[in-house]
Design a protein that fits this description.
Length: about 425
């Protein structure tokens, strides 16, 4: 018998430990197969992710992607198999901490070589579509901004029309003598008519560009409609991206056209010339009344020019349309760029690689519970009845083999010393 009897609580702990060992034995029967399935699944998605990164679709690219995915599958299976066996078995704190650190380091390596490729395979097409949709929004903002600036510049036509009308009214007053007191079509009349005609030409030029602005904006909206359709159409996203890029180039040209159709710089230059380019006869030929009228007209010209220039500079000071360009992107890059929009896909891609970590912790906790349940029990205390009978049978077989006669026949029964169990002594 053992030197110290186990207490009732210790005996229950032994039975508890034996029960847990039985469960672990049953689980060990299929755990390697489960790890292999997870490793193969991760390898398949890794293959799809690597294939999306390779430009060539030939045999060499196929074997390269296949070799990488097989290496990932084998690495994942071996890594978690090591930890599944070793981490629960170690007892020292230093060894356990070292293995835990190794597990986290290996997990980071698995994420770096596999998980992001798995995410690319799971959500790569959707991420590229997200990139296309985001690009459409940028182009729409640029188009609307360019159109707003062009329409604001077209609005300067009303200011020019008011200035032109005021000069025409003054010239009519000068022709009837109401302005300078001398009826006729003299220097003052010609000056007013000259500026009125300059503004009339500028007004006509601005009016002629209004249909161009409208046509360019309508064309841009049509291109945007086609681009939106390409983001949601069924079919491979790579082929749609090519068509999307072609439409993006056309839309960039339309936005550039709208920028060039803005007449604000033209109005600013015309306003500057309005008061600067004045042709007058010699001062000596002008009468006193006409001289005073010319001076007043020049002041009015300066005021109108300042008003037009201020309005044009206000339009020119508006924030310009942002420069937008479509940049093709791979599925892997798209998944990383728009990671916040595909959290479930990232979670699934990482979980398929790191799920065995949970199993490692489960086995480690269970092994610790088994060791705690055994306590100070010895091997004899943990033997089951079946194990004890098997041990007795093995001992009898050994004794029979040792006491056989030289010729191979069994020794007489009296010469065989019977085996006594420790409990019979």
């Amino acid at each position: 018998m053992a030197e110290t009897e186990l207490t009732e609580a210790e005996a229950q702990g032994v039975r508890y430990a034996q029960e847990l060992e039985g469960h672990l034995g049953w689980l060990d029967a299929f755990t390697p197969a489960a790890l292999a399935v997870l490793a193969v699944a991760s390898g398949v998605y890794t293959y799809l992710g690597v294939s999306s990164l390779l430009d060539d679709n030939g045999a060499l690219s196929f074997f390269a992607a296949m070799a990488y995915s097989i290496a990932v599958s084998v690495g994942i299976f071996v890594f978690w198999s090591y930890l599944m066996r070793l981490l629960p078995a170690v007892r020292g704190a230093g060894a356990r901490i070292g293995l835990v650190l190794s597990m986290f380091l290996g997990s980071a390596a698995i994420i770096a070589m596999s998980s992001w490729l798995n995410a690319a395979a799971l959500a790569g097409a959707a991420a590229v579509e997200q990139h296309l949709a985001r690009t459409v929004q940028d182009y729409q903002s640029a188009l609307e901004r360019a159109n707003t600036i062009s329409l604001s510049a077209q609005g300067l036509e009303r200011d020019i029309a008011r200035a032109r009308q005021s000069f025409e009214d003054l010239s009519e007053q000068e022709a009837t003598g109401e302005l300078s007191g001398l009826a006729g079509r003299g220097a003052v009349f010609r000056l007013l008519r000259q500026k009125s005609e300059e503004l009339q030409g500028l007004e006509t030029q601005i009016s002629s560009q209004a249909p161009l602005v409208r046509a360019a904006f309508e064309e841009g909206n049509l291109i945007l409609s086609r681009m939106r359709a390409l983001t949601v159409e069924p079919g491979p996203v790579v082929a749609r991206s090519v068509l999307f890029a072609e439409e993006a180039v056309r839309l960039s040209g339309v936005i550039t056209t709208l920028r060039q159709l803005s007449v604000a710089p033209l109005v600013a230059r015309a306003a500057q010339d309005l008061s600067a380019s004045v042709v007058l006869p010699e001062v000596e030929t002008l009468r006193g009344e006409q001289q005073a009228t010319v001076t007043s007209v020049l002041n009015v010209l300066g005021q109108r020019a300042d008003t037009l220039r201020t309005a044009a500079e206000g339009v020119m000071a508006m924030p310009p349309a942002p420069d937008t360009a479509y940049t093709p992107i791979s599925t892997a890059d798209a998944v990383i760029l728009y990671a916040e929009n595909f959290v479930p896909s990232w979670a699934g891609a990482i979980a398929i690689d790191l799920l065995p970590m949970v199993l490692v912790f489960i086995v480690a906790i269970t092994q610790a519970a088994i060791r705690s349940g055994r306590g100070r029990a010895t091997v004899e205390d943990t033997l089951t009845m079946a194990e004890f009978r098997a041990a007795l049978s093995a001992v009898r077989d050994v004794e029979n083999a040792l006491h056989r006669a030289p010729d191979g026949t069994a020794a007489p029964p009296g010469n065989v010393k019977p085996f006594k169990a420790a409990s019979d002594e």
